[in-house]
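FIELD: query
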Amino acid sequence: HARAIEVKAHGTVSGGFAGRDADKALALVGGMEGLIALAIDLETYGNAFVERVRVGKKPVGLRRLPAWSMSRRVGGGYRQRLWDGQQELRRDFAEDQVLMIRQPTAQPGWYGLPTWAAAAGLIDMLEAIAAYNARFFQNHAVPDHIITVSGGTLSDAQKEALRRFFQTDFKGLENARKTLFVALSEGQTLEIKPVAQDNDGRFIELYKAARETLPAAHGVPPRLLGIATPGALGGLNEVAAQMHLFEVFTLRPRRRLLIDALAADFAALGAADVALAPVDLTPPGQDIAALPQMVAAGIMTPDEARAWIDLPVKAEKSLDGALAARLLEALGQVKEA
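FIELD: result
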């Protein structure tokens, strides 16, 4: 879940800004760190908040307000609530002091919903499974038991011995397979029965369901989350097709949402010519493989092609008939390197 949020946030904004005012826009949002934090807020909470910093009535900058700290006020405007370790700090904002960016949703109300909201129950269930298994090993690494006594009543000393054994001496891997000794009176019997059932089978089924459901809820290709889908070959063409769909249906709408929301404030601050740049999803080597044909067709010069693949540019000119040969030679140097 956390990895999917990170992948979407970085995929949306890690290309930075493009346009004549790209550097100014990036500085206005606090650099790449501030831009990525804004995208993470939008993916995690379905909402992101930006303060319009002003000196008097003049806008001078933008500042991200963490989404977890923000709420709308009933009478209008916004309230930020922070904790400094000793007391709660509140700060109220007028309606026009804050830009609220929200993901579109059919849910009524003021707030947007993240795309993974439909899988929230499954996420909670997986967290409960992890907590259960952790508690399983903390509590003696065995299922819960019932102790039954017949033929008399245990003394306080016997009860304390049983309690100490199950709470201390039989707890953790280092105490595995220890033996319990209890001195019983004549006619007394002691029976210890496990009452909890092993749930490993059901847990495995739930993990498999999560593996299929969570990537779909996030709109992230499973392979980006380290999940190999059964029956999928994972070839380059298959991965490229998944990345194309990821870009078109998940990342591009996020960029459009962010830049449309920020455009008016950017323009007011002198950064009108700006857009969010997409991430290059071209498979490795595909650009280089196309360079010889581009040089042969006269679309690029050999020096431009060498610069494209980070080889030193040669100043001397070549005959047109030798352009492709020179480029192939350059490509050979890349492979050898």
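FIELD: remark
The mean pLDDT is 82.
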